[in-house]
Every structure is written in C-alpha cells, then in structure tokens.
Sequence to fold (336 residues):
Amino acid sequence: MTLTPAPLPAPTSPAIRHDWTVAEIQAIHDLPLLDLVYRAAEVHRAHNDPADIQRASLLSIKTGGCPEDCAYCPQSAHHKGAGLARERLMPVEAVLQEAAAAKAAGAHRFCMGAAWRQPKDGPEFDAVLAMVRGVRGLGMEACVTLGMLTPSQAQRLAEAGLTSYNHNLDTGPDFYGDIISTRTYEDRLRTLENVRDAGIGVCCGGIVGMGEGVKDRAAMLQVLANHAPHPESVPINALVAVEGTPLEGQAPVDPIDLVRMCATARIVMPRARVRLSAGRRGLTREAQILCFLAGANSIFYGERLLTTANNETDADAELLRDIGVPVPGITLAAAE
Ligand code: SAM
Ligand code: DTB
Ligand code: SF4
Fold:
C-alpha cells in the first residue's frame, strides 16, 4: 500500500505583515513539527543568509538589588532567597576590558545589563554613555538594558552610538500580571516607543517556561509582530529557574517548545534576529541545531549570561564550526 502524505496547508506568505491575530500565530505554532520547521526554514532563507549567526556577549554592569519584582529574576530585591547582593555600577574601564575580551573571542555585539527599574540622570548614566561609546570604538555593536527610559535618555543613548536597546515584554499581556506587579505592560511598550523614536534598534522578546500557556506565547509574538517595523532582535529565553526566586520550582522547558517559538518568531518576523537566549545550556547540540534550522540566527556567546552560567565558549565555537559557521580566530582541535 502506498501512503499519500496529507496535503500541506498553503504556505505562509513571506511578506512582512503587521496584522497578525493571536489565533493565526497559534495555528502556525501548533503546526506538525516538521511542517513548522520546514516553513520557518523557507522564510528564513528567503530573507536572511543562513550562515549569518550573530554572537552577542553579555555583561552585568550593575548587579542585584533591583526594586522590580519580576518573578523569574535573581536580581530582584524582593526575592531575598536568591542571595544576590546589590553591587555598584562597574567602572567604565573594567567594562571595556570585558568588551575587548569578548571581541577577541569572536563576539559581534556586546550587551550590558543593569538591575535598575530605570536609570537616574547623573554620573551613572554618563558612565553608561561612556561604555556605549567605548564599545562602539572597539568596532562592536553595543546594546544596553537598563529598565524604563525617558525620551531624552533614549536620545542621549542614540547620540552615544547605541546600536540596540533590550527591553523584553517577557510574555503575553494576559499572563504578564502573574509575573510582574511593579510595572505594567504599557510601561514596557512606552519605553519601546521611546527607543524606536530615538532611532535605536529595538531588542525585545520574552521567556518561555514560566507557567504560561501556548496562547500567551502566541500573544507575545503577536504584540511584537504587529509593531511596525518589527523589532530588529527578538530574544527567546527559556526560564533559568534560579533558587530563591518564586519560579524556582518550574519544570524545565521541553526543547521542542523552544524550536516552536524560534520557528514561529521567524515566520511572523521574517527579518528579525531571533536570538536563542537564556536556557541554551540545557539544550543538546541537536536541539540547538534544530533551532538554527528553524530560523534562530543569534546566540548569547560567552560563559556567563548576566548572573548565571551560559554554554562554554569552546563548545559553542565547535558547534558553530560543525554547522559551517566557524568563529574567526578561534582554533579548535580538528573535527573527527
Ligand atoms: N532590568 C532591566 C530589565 O528588566 O529590562 C534589564 C535586565 S533584565 C535581567 C533583562 C531580561 O533578562 C529580562 O527582561 C528577562 O526577559 C531576562 N531574564 C532575567 N532573568 C531571567 C531568567 N532567570 N531566565 C530567563 N530570562 C531571564
Ligand atoms: C535577554 O533577553 N536575555 C538576557 C539579556 N536579554 C539581557 C538576560 C538573561 C538573563 C538570565 C539570567 C541571569 O543570568 O541572570
Ligand atoms: Fe530588575 Fe530587570 Fe530583574 Fe526585573 S528583570 S528584577 S527589572 S533586573
């Protein structure tokens, strides 16, 4: 007996759209896995060079003691059990040394994170501007994530040469209140607008594995995809369940859920950098490769995220070499 494969639904238009419904996005997300990955790969290759995988290195320039209550975050002062003490802002020179080391290891972008609700104008903000100028002076892309921004702060960051501002929506609007109570979804959207108006690239994504449903994941992607233009980068994080945070007991995310999120983000935002972000350490090489096939084209590169561990640099350099995207300047033992 010959088996006739079921006909595929009509392929998703590769055109750039900003009018998605949550139901449409959820239907894409829930396609049979092979159809989803195949379609995402098609969209990816129609809009991007598949050999272009961005390496972004992270540094926590100001750690701990944050007044916000984000349930996932070990840096929140509300989660005393997470044991992260409040530190001062790092000196500019020390940050630039880290950036130079990241560049030498093959990073394209240097991302600096501060555990602030919002930056205060004054010497600390001026120091962040100097960090941005310094990173740009090294020939790297510069990204910062400092919490909420006023229009004039966004303008000053733009003048310093900032490439991109990271400010995540984290999840869909209906689930957001289960995770954060100290600022609203609208607050987040307002900062994203200030960043966009200043001409800085928008880096905005979220986290899977916090107890949200697939509908919440689709709803977050809808908000992002219906922004015109789309965010330039979309980080897809898997929750790193840190002891002492309210989400410490969450079960690890199924790697296939990450593949589905990367693929769906790719289909609805064809040209964005879809970054396979926190939680990559829990993935096998094969699961990461599936994410790349499904359109992920950026990773956090370097052995630390902000406060938790990331994949080893050599393992990443090997993985990238093995998929045909070698890291220049990194010498590894010959492949078997
Ligand atoms: N305070 C700033 C803010 O929240 O915008 C910047 C730093 S904050 C740590 C940046 C992002 O990291 C958060 O929006 C969240 O999406 C992600 N993040 C923080 N803790 C995480 C965790 N435990 N697992 C996965 N992602 C996390
Ligand atoms: C993003 O979406 N993920 C990064 C970056 N943007 C700033 C942060 C991940 C943090 C993971 C937990 C930690 O290391 O503290
Ligand atoms: Fe503060 Fe950002 Fe952590 Fe929320 S995610 S507690 S705003 S550092």
About this structure: Strands lie at 54-62, 109-114, 141-145, 164-166, 201-203, 206-208, 233-238, 273-276, 298-300. DSSP finds eleven helices and nine strands in the chain. The domain at 31-321 is CATH 3.20.20.70 (TIM Barrel). The first helix runs from residue 22 to 29.
